[in-house]
UniProtKB/TrEMBL annotation:
Cleaved signal peptide residues: none
Taxonomic superkingdom: Eukaryota
Stretches for region G5: 330-332
A GO molecular-function descriptor: rRNA binding
Name of this protein: GTPase Era, mitochondrial
Region feature G4, mapped onto this chain: 234-237
Matches recorded under PROSITE patterns: G_ERA (PS51713)
Primary site of residence: mitochondrion
HAMAP family xref list: GTPase_Era
Keyword terms, alphabetized: GTP-binding, Membrane, Mitochondrion, Mitochondrion inner membrane, Nucleotide-binding, Ribosome biogenesis, RNA-binding, rRNA-binding, Transit peptide
Disordered, as annotated region: 276-302
One of the record's GO cellular component terms: mitochondrial inner membrane
Length: 459
């Protein structure tokens, strides 16, 4: 069966005006060809110029594609299908009560638990936020913004999608060297164990890493080959040469998607490029070269060796994973791009009982969301190690009579120089952080939030 691009997905939200198709033959394929391309879309306003890239994807099943198109047409003719995203209760007791509340599932309930994996800064939290419609997970350009696994719940009609937003993969040696939390090492692995579907994120704008899956990702996929996986090429809007997407797809999928072999004519590379690739493969993971196997913490806290040294050596020379079910190309910050992936997840759900009430947005507490909102701004504006050393405590969480939420957070820093940087000249930096974090909290709690920050030197 041939690959197809779901160019008919979501006609209502994605306006396709012209598609430049690239026909690629498949081995043992029927008369149907793979159709993919970069879609030109007119600007929405007179102030925008030029064209922009719209998402594409490889859907390998004709039956699934037919359901996807049918679902999109139904959404086009029925405006009532749109549901506003849930908000997060600002009261801890209310949030806990909601989490333990009996799910209000319909008779034909569908459910899907999705683990979102990838290297640091591949866009996992950004995609999760876009799918949920609320910014409940912190996002920054620095590594390890997400420190522990967090859960998001997307409920549409009779379907509940549970998103497991995980930290970027790291290694045992890095955790020990930088004294990182153990959750950074364990949570991605544990999330895959309970997932029905894995979404592997790759940043295609990173020219040094976009043609090879992260070694830790490959280890995880190898350990759990029975969990279906989907490849998502993210940040395509930052990739100037869109024609490279086919080559990247072929590399990351080993030229195979859902058992179908994809033939892509590659650009001829100079000999030095091939030598560099071989050298990188031999030197891959130098800090883990002495490790005999991969260690994964089980539910009981025990550590079990699961991959042999020979298998690790093979994975280090392996570019991609040949068992991806489908491939998506998108920008996680573009709502229209993400909508296609959302429809895919909804249709991939299986009959089953809901895990949460339909009003649940995340399993995080309001205080945790507050901490993350402040930490995100610290990561964004503070240099080097400064944001990683700042700790927080909430001094005040109060509902005013006018409905405004008053929050006071104290920031503890280790050095006097760090304090000066956090406060900024005339207090402008700490005021900016408080203002922007407060706005993010207002959008999550759906109420006005007055956030006040103070900085104190930690003894």
């Amino acid at each position: 069966m041939a690959f197809r691009i779901n160019s008919l997905i979501l006609r209502k939200s994605v306006r396709f005006l012209k598609v430049d198709s690239v026909v690629v033959p498949l081995e043992n394929a029927s008369s149907t060809s793979l159709r993919t391309g970069w879609v030109a879309r007119r600007p929405r306003t007179n102030y925008e110029q030029g064209i922009r890239f719209t998402s594409a994807c490889f859907i390998t099943s004709d039956a699934f594609l037919s359901r996807l198109v049918k679902n999109s047409k139904a959404a086009e003719t029925d405006d009532c299908l749109y549901q506003y995203p849930n908000s997060l209760p600002h009261d801890l007791a209310e949030q806990i009560s909601l989490l333990v509340k009996e799910p209000d599932q319909p008779e034909n309930a569908m459910v899907l638990k999705v683990a979102i994996l990838g290297a640091p800064n591949s866009g996992k939290s950004t995609l999760s936020n876009s799918l949920l419609g609320r910014k409940v997970f912190p996002v920054s350009k620095k590594v390890h913004t997400t420190r522990t696994r967090a859960l998001g719940v997307l409920t549409e009609n009779n379907t509940q999608i549970i998103l497991l937003d995980t930290p970027g993969f790291t290694t045992v040696s890095k955790v020990k060297r930088h004294q990182l939390e153990k959750s950074l090492l364990e949570d991605p692995w544990n999330s895959v164990k309970e997932a029905d579907l894995v979404v592997v994120m790759v940043d295609v704008s990173d020219k040094w890493a976009c043609n090879k899956l992260d070694l830790e990702v490959l280890k995880c996929l190898t350990l759990y080959p029975d969990v279906p996986a989907v490849l998502v090429l993210n940040k395509v809007d930052l990739l100037k040469n869109k024609s490279r997407l086919l080559e990247i797809t072929a590399d990351l999928s080993c030229g195979v998607v859902n058992g179908q072999k994809l033939q892509v004519k590659r650009v001829i590379k100079p000999p030095w490029a091939e030598r560099r690739t071989d050298r990188e493969a031999r030197l891959s993971g130098p800090e883990d070269g002495n490790e005999q196997s991969v260690e994964v913490a089980s539910e009981g806290g025990e550590v079990q060796q699961v991959l042999s040294r020979e298998k690790l050596r093979t994975l280090k020379t392996q570019q991609g994973w040949a068992q991806f079910k489908d491939v998506f190309m998108l920008s996680a910050v573009d709502g229209e791009d993400v909508e296609a992936l959302k429809r895919y997840l909804v249709l991939a759900a299986k009959p089953g009982s809901w895990h949460y009430h339909s009003d649940v947005l995340t399993d995080q507490t309001p205080e945790e969301v507050c901490y993350n909102a402040v930490r995100e701004k610290l990561l964004e504006y503070m240099p080097k190690e400064v944001p990683y050393t700042v700790t927080q405590s909430i001094d005040l969480w109060h509902d005013r009579e006018n409905g405004e939420l008053d929050i006071a957070v104290k920031l503890y820093v280790k050095k006097d120089s760090h304090m000066k940087m956090v406060i900024g000249q005339a207090g402008l930096m700490v005021a900016r952080i408080a203002r922007e974090a407060g706005q993010d909290l207002s959008n999550v709690f759906l109420r006005e939030v007055k956030l006040r920050l103070s900085v104190k030197l930690k003894n």
